[in-house]
Amino acid sequence: LEDPSKSLGEAMHTKLITIRADANQEQVAELISKYNLLALPVVDDENCLLGIVTVDDVVDLLLPPASRRRRRRM
After folding, report:
1. Do the Cβ atoms of 53 and 39 come closer than 8 Å?
2. Which of 5, 15, 46, 70 maximizes the CB count within 10 A of its CB?
3. What residue segments make up the domains of the chain, in order of their start?
4. What pTM was computed for the model?
5. Region of residue 10 (phi > 0: left; psi between -120 and 50: alpha; otherwise: beta)
6. How far apart are CA 42 and CA 24, in angstroms?
7. Is 62:29 a contact under the CB 8 Å cutoff?
8. pLDDT by residue (tens digit) across 47-61?
9. Biggest distance spanned by C-alpha atoms of the chain
């Protein structure tokens, strides 16, 4: 941490990067890649949190089915 005496509120970012539940896989992958995210909050039309999509979810979508099985065994 830059300054260990800072509170979490002082260190956090207030502009959240989110995605709507009706977004397609390409949009999700683009945001995760663009902002180097590990997880992306999924929100509804009222910006209420519905869940998250992780970078692992995106990798699974991009890999062919045979590679997905092999990756999980590692």
Report:
1. yes
2. 70
3. 8-73
4. 0.71
5. alpha
6. 12
7. yes
8. 999 999 999 998 888
9. 48
